[in-house]
Amino acid sequence: MDDIINKKTVEKWQIGVSIFSIILGTILHFTYDWSNGNPFVASFSSVNESTWEHLKLAFFPMLIACIVEYFFVKDKVNNYIEAKTIGIVTSMLFITSFFFTYTGIIGTNFLIIDILTFILGVLIGEYVVYKIMNKEDESTNLTKVLSIIILVILTIYFVLFTFITPKINYFRDPVTGGFGRNFIE
What is d(CA 137, CA 87) in angstroms, rounded to the nearest whole number? Predict the structure, then answer.
């Protein structure tokens, strides 16, 4: 019976986390402009229309939710940090692969499909989290440390590449042709 209660609790949390991530991710699309180009806000908000910058919209809300949720469900689930890391990475991989696949096939992008891709990416990522957290405990100190390292590296990359942007198409703003916060080619 206790296992059923835990699964229901985790299920409710994952639904809440998904809703939170979708809402906050949508808001983060606009916060950089609303802040008049504030460098701190640029670190976690989309600063242009590049694919890389749009991954912030899934990454940071899911990361924030991961940190908050930890204090409420850590004792009710297995594989917590590993599940969250895999879920975040899955979300980002889905968004990237689906976007490039559909735009490669039809030759352009459509805002409604981009929005649905983001929403679906978050939902898929959180579904993966839910499934892994309800599996048998396979967590080790090594997998926990590696998961944390992955999240820290991704956080550093998102911030760093906002200001020092690699000059490859993944980071190019398709509207301006620029890169990163300063839109310098």
Answer: 17
Rounded CA gap, 66 and 70, in Å?
6
> pTM above 0.85?
yes
Instruction: Please state, in angstroms and rounded to a whole number, the distance separating the CA atoms of residues 110 and 68.
Output: 34
Cβ pair 68, 13 in contact under 8 A: no
Element of type H or E holding 120: helix 111-133
- Tens-digit pLDDT string for the chain (185 aa): 456 657 888 889 999 999 999 999 999 999 999 999 999 999 999 999 999 999 999 999 999 999 999 999 888 889 999 999 999 999 999 999 999 999 999 999 899 999 999 999 999 999 999 999 999 999 999 999 999 999 999 999 999 999 999 999 999 998 888 898 864 44
86 Cβ contact list (under 8 Å, min separation 6):
128, 129, 132, 147
Helices 111-133 and 2-34, interaxial angle, to 10°? 150
First to last CA, the chain: 60
